[in-house]
Amino acid sequence: MTPAARGFREMKSVVVRFAGDSGDGMQIVGERFTETSVTVPNSIATFPDFPAEIRAPVGTIAGVSAFQIHFGSQAVLTPGDEPDALIAMNPAALAVHLSDLQQGGLLIVNSAAFTDENLEMADFKSSPLDDPELRNKYEVVPIDITGLTLETLKDSQLTQREKLRTRNFFALGFSYWVYGRPLEPTINHINSKWAVKSPALADANIRVLKAGYFLGETSEITRNRYMVAQAAVEPGTYRKLSGNEAIALGLIAGARKSGRDMLFSGYPITPATSIMETLAGYKHFGVKTVQAEDEIAAIGVALGASFAGQIGVTATSGPGMCLKSEFIGLAVAAELPLVIVNVQRGGPSTGLPTKTEQSDLLQALFGRHGESPLPVVAANSPSDCFRAAFDAVQMALEYSIPVILLTDGYLANGSEPWKIPDESELREISVPFADLSRPYVAFDRDPETLARTQAIPGQPGLEHRIGGLEKDAKGCISNNPENHARMTAIRAAKIQAVAKSVPPLEVTGKRTGKLLVLGWGGTYGAITSAVASLVAEGYEVSSASLKYINPMPADLGDLIKGFDKVLVPELNSGQLCMLIRARFLVDAVAHSKVMGRPFKVSEIRERILQLLND
Amino acid sequence: MATEIQNVPAVPELSRKDFVSSNDVRWCPGCGDHAILNSLQRTFPELGVPRENFVIISGIGCSSRFPYYMQTYGFHTIHGRAPAVATGVKVANPDLSVWIITGDGDGLSIGGNHLLHLLRRNLNITVLLFNNRIYGLTKGQYSPTSLFGTKTKTSPAGSIDNPLNPVLFALGAEATFIARTVDNNPKHMVETFKAAHAHQGVSFVEIMQNCVIFNDSTWDSIYGRDNRDQQMLPLEAGKPLLFGKNKEQGIRLNGLVPEIVDASAPDILIHQPDHPSPLYAQMLATLGLPDFPTPIGVIRKIQRPTYESLVCKQIDDAKAKKGGGTWKELLQGDSTWTVKAED
Fold first, then answer.
1. In CA terms, which of A249, A387, B98, B119 is 20 to 30 Å from A566?
2. ipTM here
C-alpha cells in the first residue's frame, strides 16, 4: 500500500509552524512532532521562536510563541523558509505568522479562539476567518479545537482549566493525520511522563490527541494529506541537540580528552545563558560553574582557573563581549588557554537580544587594543556546535592561547539530530607542560606549536610570574623596542601554527566554476541548501562555509581562484566579505541581511541566479 | 597517643630569602611598599605552606607590581580585576594559598564591584589593600579614599568626593575577617598577616601606607611618632579598648554612641572581634579623626563556610548521587533513537 494509494500527496520536505499564546504549549507539541518525525526517520531541523517578554498578557501579539519544524526525505539543513502549514491557536498567532505562510499553504486555526476580545487584542477589526480573501490565498481549515477538546473530555474528572490545557494535543493529533505520522511515539511519551504522576492527565492528553487525529479521518474537513517519505539517514544512534547544549557537551568532552577539569564562569545574558545552565547540571563530571558578578569577572574567574591548571571557559553575547575585551587581551599577553563563546545577537548595544546576527566577526578578530591575534572558530549548525566547542578547547590548550568561538542565536536555540560519535572518535588533547629537566622559564615554547609551556601553581620549583606587561623570552618585564617587535611577531606566528590544526574546506559542488558562495557559521544550512538545489538543476555554482575564521583554511585562496565570481552572504553588512577582499584581492560581492532573522534559502537562490545571469 | 602520619614529605624549612625574587624592586625610595614586601617575605616562611602553593594575584597600580618581587607563583592582571582571577585560582585549586595585593584605587574604585563580591562569597583568600589615599602610578590624582578637599592635579580646587572607609566597605560586604595595620610597624604587619592567613575564609587587611612622592605623610596625623599614642587604638581580643601613652583612656558606649572616658571608668568595652552582631564592628570602623583614635588590629573575625568548600561539596555530592559521569552518559544523554542500516 503506497502512500499515494491512500490519498497522500508526496512531498520532498514540509515545513510546519505551530503558533499560539505562550501558555498554549506550542513548544511542547513542536517537540513531540519532532520526536515523531525522527523515528520515521526524516531528516529534520527545528527552530523555536519565543516571545521576548517573559509573561506577556494572554492573547496579545507580544505573547505569541511558535515552533517551526522542517522535515524531509532528503538532507534538511535549515528549519525552513515559509511554512507549508501554519497551526494558529488564536488571532494574535495568526496576525504574527500569517504573512510567512506560503501561498496556498495549509492554515489550521482554532476557530473558538476568534472571539471579539481576542480579535481586538490582535488588532483585527473583524474576524479574518470571514474574509473571502483568506480562503482564496490559503487552504483554511477552521476547527473548534477548544469545543472539541472539552467534548472529548466531558466525562473526565479534570478541572475545566486542566481540560483546556490539553487542546494543544488536539492540534497535534490533527496535524499527525494530515502528515500521516504515527501516534505511538507521542502516546509512549505521555505515558512515560505522566502516567504515574497523574494518570488522569495522561489519559486526557492521549484521548485528545486521538480525537484530533480521528477528526481528520472521519470528517471531510480537508481531503489534502501530505506524505514525506523516509530519508536515507545514515545508520547510527542519534539524539536531538540544540546549539547551546552542543556547546556544553563539546566543552566537557574537550576537557575530558585533555585530562583537565573545566571551570566555567558566566553571567546571565540572552541567548548564551543556557550554556551555563546546562553545565551546572554536570557537576558529577567535575565541572565547576561560577556565576560571576559581571561579564568582566566571569572571564577573569575563567582565566584564573586556566592559570591554576584547569581549562577556563566563559560564554556571553553582544554587550558582554565588549566587557570582556580587556581580559581577552591579558590572556593573549599571558599566553594562557581560555575559551570565550560568543552567541551572537543583534546589536549595537542592547540591540535585539533574542534575535540572531553575525555582526561580531570583526570584533572577534580585532576588538582589542594593541595587536592581539587569537584563533576564531565558528559553528555551522546546532550540532556542529559540539565539534566547534571541542576544537576550541583543543586549540586553547595545545597552543596556550585564548580562543573565541562564534555561534549565534539561531544556532543556540535551533536543534537537529546529532549522530552520536563514539568516544574513540574524539582525539586526545595534549597540554604543553614545562620541561622538568631544566629550570623553568615562563616563556619557553614548544618549537612546533609555539605554545608557551605551562607550569601549574602547586608544582615545586616552577614558581614564576606572568602578567599583562610585555615580557622577554625569559619572562622578564621588558620595554625593549626590538623585544616588543619580536613578541608581536611571535603572537602572530602562533596563529599560523594553529593553521596546521585546520582541516581543508568541504565544498558543495565542484572546486572550480562560475560562482563560489562563501559563508561562515550559522548561514551554512541556507547557503548549502540553495547551492545544492541549484547544482542539481545544472547550475555552475559551488559553496563552502568557514568553520575557522582565524586562521583560515590553507586551501581557501586556491579555491577562490578557481571561480569567476565570489558571493559572500552574511547576517551583517559584509564583514567576512571585507576580509576576503583584503586578504585575497578578489572582487567578492557581499549579500547582507541585518533583520535579526536567518537567511531564507530562497533569498540566497535568487541572489545566486541574479549573479549568474549578470 | 600521637598518630603517625606516613608518606607525607616534610615541608622544607623556608626563610625570608626563599621568597625574594631576582627582580629589582622598583618602588620609589622611602615608599611604604618596601616595608610591606619585607614583612610578607618574613611572614610566608612561618606559615607552614610549601612555597609552590603560594599564589599572589594583583591588579594594576604601584602596589600591584608586588607579585614580581615574590619568589612564588604570581599573576599581575588588569586594573581592579585581581579578585576575579584569584577566585578562579582558588575555586580551581582550593589547596593553594591565594593572596591578593591591591590598592585604594585598584580595589575600591575600578575594582570595587569585584572586591565586594569576593568578600561576600567568603573565599579563603587574603586581601592586602595598600591604602595611600592617592593614585601613585599615574602620578598623583585623588583616589576614592582621599580626604574631602584633597588638592591634586585633577582636583585643583579640592576633591568633592566623600571618601570611602575601607573597613566599613568590608563590613558592608560581610567579610568574615577584617583588620587594619600600618606600614611603619613591621611586627604588627607580620602578626596581622599571620592572623589573616590563619582565618578560614576571606581576610581583608587595610594597610595604611605612605606614598612618599604624591601623598607624603598622609597618615602621620595617626601613626606619626608624636601622634600614635593618642591617635591609635590597638585592638586585642578579650582586652579593654584602651589607648594613650599609659593606656589612660578608654572607650565605652553611651547609648549607641561611643565616648572617650578615663581608663578607670566602668563599662569600658572589651574587644570581641567574634561578636556575631556587626554593630560593634561598625562602631569600631567609624572611629577615627578628629574625635577618636583609629583602631588598629583585628576588627572582626567570624566563621562562615567558604565558597570553594561549598563548590567542592556540591561536586562531591553530585558524584556520590549520580556517580562520576561516563562518556556514554555525556554523549547519549537520556533520549536517543537508532537508525538501522537498510537491508
1. A387
2. 0.96
